[in-house]
Specification:
It is a single chain. The chain has 262 residues and is α/β, with parallel strands linked by helices. The protein is built from 9 helices and 8 strands. It has a single domain, classed as Protocatechuate 4,5-dioxygenase, Chain B (3-Layer(aba) Sandwich), CATH 3.40.830.10. The chain has a 6-stranded mixed beta sheet, with helices on both faces. It has a two-stranded parallel sheet with strand order 3-4. It is globular and about 50 Å long.
């Protein structure tokens, strides 16, 4: 059973000091966590930093290796520990369920918990006690497969109280960060506003039908596949609550959205 669904940011600024403070985002993640901590016994998170080809990957080991998959940041960002347990039984169940429904999913033994997952989880489940199942994006099998995978998360055969998360940025222009941009490009801002409007109105189509030019200007992280996963999990009719919507270095959005079925 799905108990909670959210789209969350995954910036290293959530881990330590990189010269910018996102207090509203941190408080939003903490508040979301407090609202669900007593009702969730496993987390399934799709992160764009975990990519596979030919099918989805699941880390279904009892222990999760923490991955510091970022570079050039202050030393203290590599000392933060977040080591929740994995859930081999649930992982095996998800693989079996996916393959029974003609969605190719397999176990990935050489991955763990990348910062795309643990940087938001650090604030949502602070004690790292809730088991986590990381799931990859798979760009070469298309958006609809991610929607179908999200739908499977609500299967009645899964006898667990699940928190379904996907991480990423609706605007993800790291090239602008590297150049020290003075403002977010108008097209990227328009795309972000389009997404916010779609969330408020409960209309996925507004996002998927956005003008290609503003989509290109925004360059959403993970090709919006994590958000497609959320679409499948929450359904076509939904209610969304925007918990925070900060902008980082005029280059990336830290939009945090809680979803409920309509």
């Amino acid at each position: 059973m799905i108990k909670a669904i959210a789209f969350v940011p995954n910036s290293p600024s959530l881990i330590g000091n990189i010269g910018v403070d996102h207090e509203k985002t941190v408080k939003a993640l903490e508040s979301f966590g407090r609202g669900i901590e007593d009702g969730v016994d496993a987390v399934i998170i799709m992160t764009p930093h975990f990519q596979t080809s030919g099918g989805f990957g699941i880390v279904d080991t009892p222990e999760l290796k923490q991955i510091f998959d970022y570079y050039g940041f202050p030393p203290e960002l590599y000392k933060v520990k977040y080591e929740p347990p994995g859930d081999a039984e649930l992982g095996e169940q998800l693989i079996k369920l996916g393959n029974e429904n003609h969605i190719n999913i397999g176990s990935v033994g050489n991955w763990g918990l990348d910062h795309g997952a643990w940087s938001p989880l650090l604030h949502i489940f602070k004690d790292a006690a809730v088991p986590v199942i990381p799931i990859s994006i798979c760009p070469d099998i298309g958006a609809q497969a991610h929607v179908e995978l999200g739908r499977l998360m609500g299967s009645s055969t899964i006898k667990r109280n699940l928190c379904i998360l996907a991480s990423g940025s609706l605007v993800h222009r790291l090239d602008l960060f590297q150049r020290g941009a003075s403002e977010i490009p108008p097209g990227a801002r328009e795309y972000l506003e389009t997404c916010i409007s779609a969330f408020n109105e409960g209309k996925w189509g507004k996002i998927w039908d956005a003008d290609p030019d503003i989509l290109r200007d925004a360059s959403p992280e993970g090709y919006n596949l994590p958000l497609r996963f959320i679409q499948g999990a929450v359904g076509e009719k939904f209610r969304a609550t925007i918990l925070s919507n900060e902008i980082e270095f005029n280059a990336a959005s830290l939009t945090t959205v809680k979803f409920d079925e309509a």
